[in-house]
TrEMBL record:
It is found in: Cytoplasm. Residues 1-10 have a biased composition (Acidic residues). It catalyses: ATP + H2O = ADP + phosphate + H(+). It comes from Streptomyces lavendulae subsp. lavendulae. The keyword RNA-binding does not apply. The lineage of its organism: Bacteria, Bacillati, Actinomycetota, Actinomycetes, Kitasatosporales. Has 3 domains, the large (RuvB-L) and small ATPase (RuvB-S) domains and the C-terminal head (RuvB-H) domain. The head domain binds DNA, while the ATPase domains jointly bind ATP, ADP or are empty depending on the state of the subunit in the translocation cycle. During a single DNA translocation step the structure of each domain remains the same, but their relative positions change. This is Holliday junction branch migration complex subunit RuvB. One of its GO terms (cellular component) is Holliday junction resolvase complex. The RuvA-RuvB-RuvC complex processes Holliday junction (HJ) DNA during genetic recombination and DNA repair, while the RuvA-RuvB complex plays an important role in the rescue of blocked DNA replication forks via replication fork reversal (RFR). RuvA specifically binds to HJ cruciform DNA, conferring on it an open structure. The RuvB hexamer acts as an ATP-dependent pump, pulling dsDNA into and through the RuvAB complex. RuvB forms 2 homohexamers on either side of HJ DNA bound by 1 or 2 RuvA tetramers; 4 subunits per hexamer contact DNA at a time. DNA binds at residues 302, 321, 326. Belongs to the RuvB family. Residues 266-357 are annotated as: Head domain (RuvB-H). Residues 12-192 are annotated as: Large ATPase domain (RuvB-L). GO terms for biological process: DNA recombination; DNA repair.
Amino acid sequence: MNGYDETDIPEPDRLVAPGADGEDTAVEAALRPKDLGEFVGQEKVRQQLDLVLKAAKQRGATADHVLLSGAPGLGKTTLSMIIAAEMGAPIRITSGPAIQHAGDLAAILSSLQEGEVLFLDEIHRMSRPAEEMLYMAMEDFRVDVIVGKGPGATAIPLELPPFTLVGATTRAGLLPPPLRDRFGFTGHMEFYAPEELERVVHRSARLLDVEIDTAGAAEIAGRSRGTPRIANRLLRRVRDYAQVRADGVITREVAGTALQVYEVDARGLDRLDRAVLEALLKLFGGGPVGLSTLAVAVGEERETVEEVAEPFLVREGLLARTPRGRVATPAAWAHLGLVPPQQAGGGPRGQQGLFGA
């Protein structure tokens, strides 16, 4: 691990950014489902989690520790709150970056009540000493508090009440195996299908008292990059447009025009995404081109292009990472309405890099 993390990058002010800002946090609190029955999507995780929680309640025991992994904005925090609600327990919320010393974690653990849910977001960013303390806390409900330094240091055992740890991570591969293995249930959050996001949009519209038709909800869902948080953010911006420049009703036409104003196209690409594709296609003929060169061409930091723009472009099949550099796919040319230059072999330039070279 090189110490670099995508959450260290100051992400641009993007309407399609998967991370939450202050407004998102406030609105999400009102829109969050309160139980598993209300939660939209993630069918397998919901069913499995439902069994885990019901079995624990029937035994009269605390639920097993839960690890939720997946991209930002898919509902990990919401599920942690639902777990607490289903178990009838309070929830304590903190994050990995906030726990930089073992003493920070000891202070939190020692104040937990019996059965309480501890939600630890971005758990992979916790310090190593705190990680090692968490092993014992999860397995034996005990921690050793070190008093003093050097040869005179003394370990004082501290018994903890049974609790449930819910860990959330966007990078499960960075979790050390000893920590990962101590979770009784692991759920991976998938990106949402358009029809699931339509249900999210309709539900949010009802809660926000926004009038929207089926086609309008489908238009927003199709541009939401498979992420409920982005769907809710786009809904709020389209609501603003409909209120100011239309009759307040969100139709397909209103949604499409509003999102055009906010520079979010039909596939959910925004200004940065299109700038990367346009540079790759127009300046470099579709590639292959090195990441640093591509970043200079769009006037962004290398890390911003790699961690903010590329994941979605790769997932959409518009860009490929190859040993020779970044390569545009035929779908990228088609999406921007450009004709790829022809190589001597008869195929679009850059096509060779997709299959190795």
